[in-house]
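Service request form, structural biology core

Requester: graduate student, group of Dr. S.
Request type: structure prediction, single chain
Budget code: on file
Notes: please return the result as structure tokens.

Sequence provided:
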Amino acid sequence: MVGQTGRIAGTRQHPEHDMNSRWTHSRADGGRNDTRTNTRRLLAIVFLALAATPLWAGVQARLERSIIQDGDTVTLTIETDGSNEEARPDLSVLEKDFDVLGTSETRQIRILNGHRSDKRLWQVELDPHHGGTLRIPPIPVGTEKTAPLTLKVVAQAPAAAGDGRGPVFMKTELEPAGTSPRVQQQLLYRVRLYYRVPLVEGSFSDLKIKDAVVERLGEDSQYQTTIGGQRYQVIERRYAIFPEKSGTLEIPPIRFDGRLMAASGQRFPSTGIDSMMRRFFGNQNPFDDAFFAGTPFGNAGKRVRVRSEPLKLEVRGRPAGYHGSDWLPAAALKLTDSWAAGPPEFRVGEPVTRTITLEAKGLESSQIPDIHIPEVEGVRLYPEQPVTENRTDGEWVFGTRKQSVAYVATRPGTVKLPAIRVDWWDTGAEKQRSSVIPAWEVRVLPAAGGTSAALPPAAPASKPTAAAPVAASASTPESSGTWRQPLYRYWPWAAGGVLLLVTGLALLRLRTSGRERARSNAEQPAPAAPARRSGDLRRKLQQACEHNDAAAAEQLLLEWAAREWPEDPPRNLAALAARLETGVDEVLRLERARYGASNGDWDGGPLWEAFRNGLQIRKTGSTDSDDALSPLYPKWS
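Core staff response, request fulfilled:
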């Protein structure tokens, strides 16, 4: 029994050991399986997290609304993880279908359990160009792009479509109405905003037209009107439109963006320190008043957006019957002239300034070409830079172009100034017209100061020729029956005359030789510039020439001339040049720099060199007009 029992016991213990052993192994295997399962799950979570990381960390875009009404704006939000500080959204891809009205950027930083996360957001306000289903394309932000989005723009309700029943609407008007304008003709475009509820703020969009120049005319005007029994406030804005080419011209709509004053009765919100304010004022907001509208204290009010209707018109080109050299379509055109001194006095070598003024109603000054001033024989013309100006009376543009020209006569006598003619197109009468300054004659006086440099030829042979017949008639008394005394009675007088003649010639020779000796001892010509006599004037003139200061150089030269001719000083550079033998070119270059069309560019080096070497004065008494006038403007033709 014992042995059997022992065997039985041994036998019974063995299976238990086996069971425990199997349970232990099974438990160990199960633990390994659980570990493997948990590991797999953990790896799956990690992989999913890693796979999801680009989705959360990438660039995202969303719209506040997917359906809006025509005239409304929508906010597009672009979000990134903030890892790239330099990345910015490229909004140029939106310009095809939207106007970007504004962009704001914010940054969010969150720290949770020691982990920091950055987020950057851009909020972009968009205004659709038209209705329908619009696609917002992928927007690049650094090296990434947003997903495309879809926006649906539906038509407004009839009461808000601008038919006069809404609180805010717009209307436009184009003048001239019902006709096709000419190219470059002014069009008057009126934009009117009607509103019957108070506006806190607002602004118009800019008017930009392809193939046309647009100019705003004056300030906005405000008035009141009644439509359908409703009283409306009106804001009117005017534009001048100048089509640049013929064909179809499209005027896009103008948009108004504003805010209406909030309705009264606004209550305090139930957050923050407003509970303290409620203790004093109750539930009524004290800042809910028109006085605080548009301020940080007042209510922002409801946003309103309206736009005008687009327009199309046909623009005609130049008429076939127009024969003017320049195309000038205007409602009116005036051509006048004036003189710096009236009546003008023309004198050889002295400039006389004439100003030609062309004013056109319905043209900008940039559309007016240079005024053609005909050449005049015996007179040199020195035009100055034209002066242009634009002004408006609120409905029309008035362009003005003033052209001043200096007339410098080269010889005395009568000079005829030709007529000046400008052809233009009358847009009101649809016909070509011409504005003319008539031709007129002027009398040119000799040069001032008694100089004969600009005098006409003196014809020296005319007087001796006229005296010869008189002497001949006196020497033939027999033919006229005149009594003649004997010739021997006059020989003492003849001898005395010969003696006086010889004595005079001798004295003249002595005087001439003395002058020649004086000139040889002077080392420089006698009539040299008095710069040797005035070191201060010479030094100032040198400084003016070195600094290319044309105004100072002119003043100093005329001061020198006043010392040289104290009784009759030249009044300008042209008159001074007429009295000089050397340095004429340099003096006249200075005059052209001051009063000509050279934009004021002047090099003072040549003038100083000529002055330093001595400006020789022209000798008087010459009767050769051509020789006297040749240095006046020797190189300008």
